Amino acid sequence: MTLPPEPQVSPHPTVITDPADLRAALRGHAVAFVPTMGALHEGHATLIRAARAAVPGGRVVVSVFVNPMQFGPNEDLSRYPRDLDGDRRVAGEAGADLLFHPDVPTMYPDGFSTSVSVSGVSEPLDGAARPGHFTGVATVVLKLLNLVRPDVALFGEKDWQQLAVVRRMVRDLNLPVDVRGVPTVREDSGLALSSRNAYLSADQRAQAAVLSRALRAVQAAYADGERRGAALRQAGLDVLTTAADLSLDYLSVVGSDMHEREIMDNDPMNRVLVAARMFGVRLIDNMPLAAHVAAGQSTVSPA
Ligand SMILES: Nc1ncnc2c1ncn2[C@@H]1O[C@H](COP(=O)(O)OP(=O)(O)OP(=O)(O)O)[C@@H](O)[C@H]1O
Ligand SMILES: CC(C)(CO)[C@@H](O)C(=O)[O-]
Ligand code: BAL
Q: How far apart are CA 210 and CA 283, in angstroms?
C-alpha cells in the first residue's frame, strides 16, 4: 500500500507580546530583526530570509506592530490589513524564530511624551505628503531596536526614504546595529509588492503596474544620457498620463539627500521615486538611476 505524502508542516514562530519575555528569549544569541506592520507577503519573506542568512545559528525576530504614531488623522490606520495567523505562517516558512507582537499600550503607555525627529532626509516627498509620518517611524523603530537589540536590522528598498531616515537616525544616535537594505520584490507586472495592494482587485493591481512602468521610463531616459531633472521627470509623467484613476502626490528624481536636482550627476544614490493614489489607495515605488543599471534593477541602499 502506498501512503499519501506527509503534509508539509510549516514551523510556526512563537508569538511574544511582552518585552521582558522577548529579552529572555534572545539573551546570548546573535539577532537579526525585521520590523513590519504585518499582513506579510513575499517582500517581507525576502527580508526574513536575508535575516536568516545574516545570523546562521542565531535568532530571527519579526515584529508585527501597526504603529498608530506614523498614521495621519485621515489615513487608513483602522482598516490597515491585519492577519496574525497568516503572518505566523509566512514568517515561519521564511525562517523566523520569534514574532514580536506588542499591543499599543505596551509601546505607548499613558503619558508617552518622547519623539525622534530626523531633519533633512525626512522633509521632502513622503515627509511633505504625510506630515509627522517619519517622526512616527523613527520613534517606533528606535523603540523596537531598543527592545530587540539586534545585531542586524533589515528594511526594504520599497520604502527608500524610510530606509534613508533609519540609516540617518542610526548614525546620528550611534545605535549599535547594522542596517541592511533589501531590493524591492515585484509582481511579474512590475508592481511592487505591498500590504496595501490587498485593497486592490486583480484588475486594479494590473493597472497599478503603470507606476513601475513610469519609473522604468525615467531609468531609460537616464540610461540614454538625459541628466536634466525636469526632462527625466517628464519621461515618467508621460507614462502616468495613460493611467485611469490616478492622483499623483509626487514623481521626483533625487540624490542621496532625497532632494530634487536640476541636473543629475552620476551619483549611484540617484533615485526616482513616485507616490500616487490609485483607486483610493496610496501606493509608492522607486528605482535607481545609474547609467549602468538595467531597468528595474537596484544598486545600493541609502548611505
Ligand atoms: N515589495 C517589497 N520588497 C522589499 N521589501 C518590502 C516590500 N514591501 C515591503 N517591504 C519592507 O517590509 C518592511 C515592512 O513593511 P510594511 O509592513 O509596511 O509592508 P508594506 O508592504 O510596505 O506595507 P504598506 O502597504 O503599508 O506600505 C519594510 O522595511 C518595507 O520596506
Ligand atoms: C518600519 C516600520 C515597521 C515602522 O512601523 C514600518 O514603517 C514599515 O513596516 O515599513
Ligand atoms: N511601509 C510603510 C509604512 C507606512 O506606509 O506607514
A: 11
Task: Compute the distance from residue 63 Cα to the ligand 2 centre, in Å.
Answer: 9
Supply 92's cell numbers: 515561519
Largest Cα–Cα distance in the chain? 74
pTM comes to 0.95
Three cell numbers at 82?
491585519
Element (H, E) at 60: strand 59-64
Is 299 domain-assigned? no
Is the same domain home to 204 and 103? no
DSSP letter, residue 219? H
Interface ipTM above 0.85: yes
Are 176 and 207 part of one and the same domain? no
CB 148 within 8 A of CB 175: no
174-203 pLDDT, tens per residue?
Answer: 999 999 999 999 999 999 999 999 999 999
Range of the domain at 270: 195-288
Identify which of 227, 223, 228, 235 has the alpha carbon closest to the alpha carbon of residue 291. Answer: 223
The domain tally of the chain equals 2
In a domain, 302, yes or no: no
Cα(183) to ligand 1 centroid in Å equals 11
pLDDT tens, residue by residue, 41-85: 999 999 999 999 999 999 999 999 999 999 999 999 999 999 999
Instruction: Determine contact, residues 30/57, Cβ cutoff 8 Å.
Output: yes
Q: Which residues line ligand 2 (CB under 6 A)?
A: 35-37, 67, 70, 137, 140-141, 159, 162
User: Is the Cα torsion angle 16, 20, 23, 25 positive or negative in sign?
Assistant: negative
CATH of the domain at 117: 3.40.50.620
